[in-house]
Design brief:
The complex is a heterodimer. By secondary structure, chain A is α/β, with parallel strands linked by helices. Chain A has one domain: Glutaconate Coenzyme A-transferase (3-Layer(aba) Sandwich), CATH 3.40.1080. In chain A, 20% of the residues lie in helices and 28% in strands. Chain A has a four-stranded parallel sheet with strand order 1-8-11-13. A three-stranded parallel sheet of chain A has the order 2-3-4, with no helix packed on it. In chain A, strands 5-7-6 form a three-stranded antiparallel sheet. In chain B, the strands form two sheets. Chain B has a ten-stranded mixed sheet with strand order 4-3-2-1-5-8-10-11-12-13, with helices on both faces. The chains are: A alpha/beta, B alpha/beta. Chains A and B meet through helix 3, helix 4 and helix 5 of A and helix 2 and helix 3 of B.
Chain lengths: 203, 209
């Protein structure tokens, strides 16, 4: 599962609630954080549905759900530098087999990975992260599935939308096809399989 | 007198060239924004996907969709732009950012940075964008106290904490002195409430004048 959001900005809370109701378990979740407070990803974790979290920044002042599960050994963590996390999903969506990144070279997060010197600089080989399902939070959609985002809530949405077999977007409004300015569309409809409208006031 | 955190932030701000594109790390480095002179033309990048970030949002300005890397509500300035995470980090790795300012647990004499993990067994590790920033920005400034609370130096011959980046730090701004990491060694640029000789006696790192 690729789950959008940076903290709560862009977090598809209602889609995660629906996932909780749906009952899927033993999930691997890829997201920047590992849940905030008790809603969204934190709620999914609290239900014991997640086997592994792939993220860059689990530890936050309000990540008590993840912290507790991690310390009890009830959830596995793969820590990935934030830029490599984004680029690994971008690579998956763009059909790239793997790529050499300068990020993390010489650190514990590159241990055991292939490195190569290119033009005098050392890079580490990073592989794509592809999701079965991506849940993203966007601002508006049209009926074709074109998406626009709002401010920094865009974050991982456009990248994750390219990198999963089934892409579900939650939006605050669905407009008629033709009503979004084509120049302003950030995620083109080809990437989006389902759009769910949630109330404008809800988050 | 040694420098307060605000004075350290001011010292960093003085060395940021006008018109620079700058990323300020979470925590102390965010204080630097308060000391950039108006009209400096410095554009702040926040890695969650924005250029020309404005000051912290207050009251009606607070918008859950507009936060900084520390997830605090912020504002946008005229000329701001938004972009997704892959683009945001491409800006770093691609060498487009002029300066980043980061906190640190340790910096080595060779410019290695350790700032993401204390190595404690039960600590929940978190790295965020620190590794990307450390190797991506044209200049990496570190802002930290020179000594830990237990008195051990944080400018060290070799880092004992897990590394964030290798040979990436250019300058170290501390409460007691500002240092420049040069190929030939660590140079003391300025001291505050102490002397070169006193620092040389307290640090295990050879210092250039």
């Amino acid at each position: 599962m690729l789950v959008g959001g940076f903290g709560m900005a862009g977090m598809p809370v209602q889609l995660i609630d629906a996932l909780i109701d749906q009952g899927a378990t033993d999930l691997t979740v890829v997201s920047n954080n590992a849940g905030n407070g008790d809603t969204g990803l934190a709620a999914l974790l609290a239900k014991g549905r997640v086997r592994k979290v792939v993220c860059s920044f689990p530890r936050q002042h309000d990540s008590w759900v993840f912290d507790g599960l991690y310390r009890e050994g009830k959830v596995e963590l793969e820590l990935v530098p934030q830029g490599n996390l984004a680029e690994r999903m971008r690579a998956a969506g763009a059909g790239i087999g793997a790529f050499f990144s300068p990020t993390g070279v010489g650190t514990p997060l590159a241990e055991g990975k292939e490195t190569r010197e290119i033009d005098g600089r050392t890079y580490v080989l990073e592989h794509p992260i592809r999701g079965d399902v991506a849940l993203v939070g966007a601002h508006h959609a049209d009926r074709m599935g074109n998406l626009v985002y709002r401010k920094t809530a865009r974050n991982f949405g456009p990248v994750m939308a390219t990198a999963a077999r089934l892409v579900v977007a939650q939006v605050t409004e669905v407009v008629e096809t033709g009503e979004l300015d084509p120049e302003a569309v950030v995620t083109p409809s080809i990437y989006v399989d389902r759009v769910v409208r949630v109330g404008g006031g809800e988050r | 007198m040694s420098l307060s955190k605000q004075e350290m932030a001011a010292a960093v701000a003085r060395d940021i060239p006008p018109g620079s594109y700058v990323n300020l790390g979470i925590g102390q480095p965010t204080l630097v924004a308060d000391h950039l002179p108006s009209g400096s033309g410095v554009v702040l990048h926040t890695e969650n996907g924005m250029l020309n970030m404005g000051p912290a949002a207050v009251g009606d300005q607070v918008d859950p969709d507009l936060t900084n890397a520390g997830k605090q509500p912020v504002t946008e300035l005229p000329g701001a732009s938004y972009f997704h995470h892959a683009d945001s980090f491409a800006m770093m790795r691609g060498g487009h950012l002029d300066v980043c300012v980061l906190g640190a647990f340790q910096v080595s004499a060779g410019g290695d940075l350790a700032n993401w993990h204390t190595g404690e067994a039960d600590a929940v590790p978190a790295v965020g964008g620190a590794m990307d920033l450390a190797i991506g920005a044209k200049s990496v400034f570190v802002m930290m106290s020179l000594f830990a609370k237990d008195g051990t130096p944080k400018l060290v011959p070799a880092c004992t904490y897990p590394l964030t980046g290798v040979g990436c730090v250019d300058r170290v701004y501390t409460d007691l002195a500002t240092f420049e990491i040069r190929p030939e060694g660590v140079a003391v640029l300025e001291t505050f409430g102490t002397s070169y000789d006193e620092l040389a006696g307290r640090l295990d790192v050879p210092l250039l004048r």
